[in-house]
Amino acid sequence: NAGGDIPSQDKVDDLKTWLSSVLTNMETCLDGFDELTSASKEKEMMQLALRNSTLLTSNSLAIANKIITILQHFNIPLHRRLLGFPSKPSSDGATGFPAWVSSKDRKLLQDNSSTISFDIVVAQDGTGNERSIAEAINKVPLQSTKRFVIRVKAGKYIENVVIDKKRQNVMLIGDGMGATIISGSLSFGGGSTTFRSATFGKL
């Protein structure tokens, strides 16, 4: 660039993360258009625009992947500090958390589940407030600025969970890997759209 600054590895890795997310989003949109049975000029125009954008994004991602290799080839030192992670321990001892994670949320992430105060508890055996995750999500206040914490007790929950855009600051805590399981079965072949088939989705 004009200033002659060399991009750090953390910035390149962040760029790759964002480009990968954009690429996934556009591919999902293309899948949605492919699933439409009706043909129209508007559909063809949107598909063409998305395919062109997908190609450009894919090329950009390929370039970003090569940047680190090129810098290493010229023995240019790189420094890693991903997505706002502090390079040195912070004053509150929360090393390893991004700078944008509040102290309250850090405490939530570090605490044992037995010491956390939950807003709702989900349990299939009826020992909680709700029996399904979807029922608990429906109890989340709309556009709330307060963190809403849901505990999902051990069990296999056969449901497709969707958190809509009006429900924010939602945190789900399970009983551990292999204990709390969410398993959906929607698919395009089964009559659903690709967009709606996610086992756990945030709109």
UniProtKB/TrEMBL annotation:
<dbReference type="InterPro" id="IPR011050">
    <property type="entry name" value="Pectin_lyase_fold/virulence"/>
</dbReference>
<dbReference type="GO" id="GO:0004857">
    <property type="term" value="F:enzyme inhibitor activity"/>
</dbReference>
<keyword id="KW-0063">Aspartyl esterase</keyword>
<dbReference type="InterPro" id="IPR000070">
    <property type="entry name" value="Pectinesterase_cat"/>
</dbReference>
<dbReference type="InterPro" id="IPR012334">
    <property type="entry name" value="Pectin_lyas_fold"/>
</dbReference>
<feature type="domain" description="Pectinesterase catalytic">
    <location>
        <begin position="119"/>
        <end position="201"/>
    </location>
</feature>
<protein>
    <submittedName>
        <fullName>Uncharacterized protein</fullName>
    </submittedName>
</protein>
<comment type="similarity">
    <text>In the C-terminal section; belongs to the pectinesterase family.</text>
</comment>
<dbReference type="GO" id="GO:0042545">
    <property type="term" value="P:cell wall modification"/>
</dbReference>
<dbReference type="InterPro" id="IPR006501">
    <property type="entry name" value="Pectinesterase_inhib_dom"/>
</dbReference>
<keyword id="KW-0378">Hydrolase</keyword>
<dbReference type="Pfam" id="PF04043">
    <property type="entry name" value="PMEI"/>
</dbReference>
<feature type="domain" description="Pectinesterase inhibitor">
    <location>
        <begin position="9"/>
        <end position="63"/>
    </location>
</feature>
<dbReference type="GO" id="GO:0030599">
    <property type="term" value="F:pectinesterase activity"/>
</dbReference>
<comment type="similarity">
    <text>In the N-terminal section; belongs to the PMEI family.</text>
</comment>
<dbReference type="GO" id="GO:0045490">
    <property type="term" value="P:pectin catabolic process"/>
</dbReference>
<comment type="pathway">
    <text>Glycan metabolism; pectin degradation; 2-dehydro-3-deoxy-D-gluconate from pectin: step 1/5.</text>
</comment>
<dbReference type="Pfam" id="PF01095">
    <property type="entry name" value="Pectinesterase"/>
</dbReference>
<dbReference type="InterPro" id="IPR035513">
    <property type="entry name" value="Invertase/methylesterase_inhib"/>
</dbReference>
